[in-house]
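We store sequence, tokenised fold; for instance:
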Amino acid sequence: MGERKGTNKYYPPDFDPAKHGSLNGYHKTHALRERARKLSQGILIIRFEMPYNIWCDGCKNHIGMGVRYNAEKKKVGKYYTTPIYRFKMKCHLCVNYIEMQTDPATCDYLIVSGARRKEERWDMAENEQILTTEREEKEKLETDAMYKLDHGGKDRQKLTKALPSLSEIQDYQAGWKDDFQLNSSLRRKFRTEKKVLAEQEEKDDAVRMRTNLSIPLLPEREEDKKLAALLTYQTPDSYEDKKHIKRKEISSRSWFTASSPTPPGGAAGSLLHKLSLQGKRAAVAKALGSSHSPFIRRRSAKEEDTAKVSTEVTQNEAAASTEGRQVNGGHKGADEGWTAEKVTCSGSLTSLVADYSDSDSDS
């Protein structure tokens, strides 16, 4: 970048190196341009980076470490031979100005005004670290013999308390001296673990292929094995199996319905049960009557009277023939047996009675 700028500089004809010195002197400008506009006041504008997290006093917002600002830098004093610089910058979230300065004594930055520090500092005393000796203490140790003797006794007490931890640290560090042996053992351990992981990955891939899964599987545990042993799995029946079971139940079921002792539902339920039984009886009677006569018609009053007379005549003849057979005491032929006629029921339907006139009974 510097070479490019150096080779592209234009020197006008009236440029005199002895008089102007440089092109900046010829143009009467500073090399830093706008950054040096307050150089006469001892202020130089630089790019300042926030050294730690702070809270702005103007807007109460948090400003993180590393945020950069255009800050005015000026020298405000010295710490021995080290200069102390102060930086003034404007908050990017409000109109508040923040001033900070260097602290060479603690190698840190101090907030002068406009903000407060977010307390995240590392306390060496709380973390049992060795504290750095202050300059005043060093001077006192060099000049005061009694203070040096007392300080030496305190140091020996600290050493006695720290010996166990120090010996443990030394033993731990001694185990890492043989680099080749440590490297060999680690590589051997890694090879064994890699082989175990490869075998486990093969088993997991087999399970995923069998169950059609695409999720990572967790390693097996003894609790999972015990729980899986307690579970029983049953394959659901297919449609054909369910159909076969249903047909088997239907075929093994009784054809006749068992009459329940007490129909549920109280009086209404008993009434419905009676009606259903009457309907079944009527259906059975209709089925039996349809084998001989497909049609059943209601008789008229005249036909009913005629049927009554014929029934009475038939009954009287049957009774007379029965008395005659009892008196004679002998067997008549097959043609002398009793013959049952159609008997008219009290209802309008007729029923069939078997004819045993051709039987060879001895009665």
